[in-house]
Give the backbone structure.
Amino acid sequence: MLAIFLIPAALCYTFGLMLGDRRQGWAIFAAMGILFVLMASVVISAEQAGTPLLASAGLDQTASPLQAGGNMEGKETRFGIVNSALFATVTTAASCGAVNAMHDSLTPIGGLVPMWLMQLGEVVFGGVGSGLYGMLVYAIIAVFVAGLMIGRTPEYLGKKIEILEMKMSALILLVTPMLVLLGTAVAVLLSAGVAGIANPGAHGYSEILYAFSSAANNNGSAFAGLSANTPFYNTMLAVAMWLGRFAIIIPVLAIAGSLAAKKRIAAHAGTLPTHGPLFVTLLIGAVVLVGALTFVPALALGPVVEHITAQQVDTEHVTAQQVDTRQVAAPAPSTAQ
Amino acid sequence: MKALIRPALIVFAALTLFTGTFYPAVVYGIGQALFSQQAAGSLLKSGDHTIGSSLIGQHFSSPGYFWGRPSATSPMPYNAAASSGSNLGPLNPALAEAIASRKAALLALDPGNTLPIPVDLVTASASGLDPEISPAAALYQVDRVAQARGLKETQLLALIQSHTQGRQWGLLGEPRVNVLALNLALDQLAAQPAMPSRDGIEQ
């Protein structure tokens, strides 16, 4: 896990070093680090809390020195909950794709976070190089939003952010959501797409959403129940994978070229400093806001519905248990498809 | 053109030699010299007979052995040629059914056991080849194994204690018990009285 993050995290420092202002690198690192710690905590606590289905089966899910407890379906004993949940967060925050637990069997919220980390464009450390440039695009968005609020031309690192940079940044922010959301929409509409689903209800939709999120954002992990080795998914995911890389790289290079050609202007009274806690907050805000607004509806149909259903199953079961102790959890309604 | 092709070919040949021959040979040499037991597959032996690997779980289903994690590999559990998890979602009715039947299997051989069942003993592992169970899952089975073997519970508790592996550096991973090693030790312990069936080990 350390090795997965080592180079992408170190590149933040490299960035600061190359700018001759290490604080700029540390600011990017801080934003990534805060997002990572928050997301890892969510996954760990969701997995440790276990699932209502396991609880209603009368199983012991409490963590103790003798067992990891929690949702152990699809997890290895030696990794337990914490190491499996941490690995799931690390592998999807960076564009690694290796897994040490089956993501398809994660709790609804435990599966939502890895999906969302990929959907952000893998900017929480992310891939080697691609994570940094992805976050720098969000930095451009952050200074632009801040510039709008105070009514000044936005600048980043002494370079004016103008129409071309914003057009390219907007393009980058639109490409992967388009690939993920359109791909998922096409797959759930066609019988070839629905045929691959392994789990009933909202979870089946989550499998498709995860597949496209993973393919379009350079990951390799999967809700592996989905039978993706079919001509339909191979073609769709290959296109998502191809555009998800090059349709980002080219606008990023355009921004780089345009910024490099510009004169560096000295900081003045109206310049937003891009190395302090205020900027780190703005940057996280930009990531969360753009990520949340783009994917909340899609996530609401999958993991969120599943989570709410799980809670309902729980309540229903408690009532049902008084009548029949052997009754098992009811299937999730297929509202999402 | 020639000036371009020559260095390309030289680099190609050099990299092929380095990454295809030199590097694997060095890694192989280090593995054999310093970690020969691990390089051979961490094999466990009983006398001269190789029983299995401490890293690959095996299927135990007789009451006289400690059972490992349920395995979702196909076509049979613990198929080391097709590592796989169940991929069942947290609400899938199939998961509830699988857990109910695993619970029933445990309780059928151990009807008097009123301890809560540790979650890892009835949920499938990620690999389907998990060689370990939690100490709680081992303790849960003491009652059944002791009865089937005619051993004292204190003997089994001591055996589990000595086979419990803590966290790596006290931090990484979870405490665990290797099922195959535990069952081998169990066979040794039970060697004096009449030997029960060895269905698990023979696989």
